[in-house]
Amino acid sequence: MVRIIGIDPGLRFTGWGVIDAQGNRLSYVASGVLASDSKMAVPERLCVLSNGLEGLINQYSPDEAAVEETYVNQNGTATLKLGYARGVALLVPAKSGLLVIEYGAKTVKRAVVGTGAATKDQVTMMIKRLLPTATIPRADAADALAIAICHAHHRTSQNFVAAGKVMA
Hints:
It catalyses: Endonucleolytic cleavage at a junction such as a reciprocal single-stranded crossover between two homologous DNA duplexes (Holliday junction). With about 170 residues, the chain is α/β, with parallel strands linked by helices. The protein has five helices and seven strands, in the order E-E-E-H-E-H-E-H-H-H-E-E.
């Protein structure tokens, strides 16, 4: 069995979801959202995110982490701020010794729904089907669970080397 934390990074809301995977069997552990106050300075908001992720890793003891890749949009400032949050989402689990894998949004949607063009509602519906006991307070938490599920599927469907570790 492997415990996976999925992270959907954002400066305002960072979704997180923890699942256990044993082969093709998935079990819901926990999910939620880390929120920062937009009135705070960016460095303070990044500290909130970092401290929150450290606390989650200490509480749930995941074995691996999966993080959604950043998409670039037309608002450069928003993309840059998302990049800050994503940097924290990659760094904190890596510093904790976890294997960290990144997945693009289309790959996540394809793994969970079957199509890379799935809507957020379709992703949430499939999360509820795959993890019937899941509590989903916001779409960010559903996205994080989807990222964790994507990683569970990819790690069992193929052998690959990532971050110096062989996964089977």
